[in-house]
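Box 3.1 A note on notation
Throughout this textbook, protein chains are presented in two layers. The first layer is the amino acid sequence; the second is a token string describing backbone geometry. Keep the layers aligned when reading.
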Amino acid sequence: MEQLLNYFSLGLQDKGVGETIGMEIETSFVNERGEPITLAQSQQLLILLCNEYGWFAGKMKNNLLTSIFNRNGNRILYELGRQNIELSSASGDPVDVFLDTKEILGQVYNAAARVGAFPSFQPILDTEEELLVIPDERDAIWLELDGRQALELLARTSSVQFTVSVSLANAIQCLNKLGRNLDRFLADYPQDEYWKKYIKTSKANYNLLRYGGPLHFDSLEHYCAELVKNKVVVGPKLVPYQDITNLDIPLYLRSIWWYFRLRRYDDTLCIEVRPLGRWSDDKFAEQMRMVFGILDS
């Protein structure tokens, strides 16, 4: 557990709560009839953004363009579903990130319209179609681990996540504040039901608290002790934490889907706030005000 404690505590720049933020915004796209766009359409969208909107090709897998990026460090990529496109913003000043994100989304919507695709502002896309697309090796591992039925549940959900800087001194206090207010988040987060069903449906036999997680921690040591109760994904199987010698910590942390979780980006400690539904773009400011209101209380 010492390696996790060191990861979260050593070499950090001391930043205030919310001094910097990042955003991850997932958006399902549909055609004029309200049906999920095809894989060909989502590929055309990414290619058009590169050809005419100043984006650059990132990863390719099996002849699919799976991610693109711009000069400011923002990324656009698939999120499981062929229709579900994620914007992952570079972190920075909250005002700058909000403005940059809105500008990028405008570009995406304009480019999407040219290929017959339109944003669907809803957290769960109501369709019986199979949407799952496996663009890279990591997703292929999850498919073997979980099974298609479980992953299909998540392929039709779209969320918003905020990553908020915190200092080491107040990180646990901030996590606990968010945990005490979970009901406020879940009231507007219908995909919670899908995540719980995913955990139960998966062939992996996860610890039930791998999703959601504990909501109160006594210390950073307590936080890490709760983390290591979850096994590590090694290929398409789960291995007890204590049996791992060379742990890829960032990858491990990404595979434990707590409502509120600590993350580290370079020398900045952050809390990722996850249970936020994808509604209209106008909702972002309201969602962020709720988060900051809780953290400032």
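The chain has eleven helices and 15 strands. The chain has a mean pLDDT of 95.
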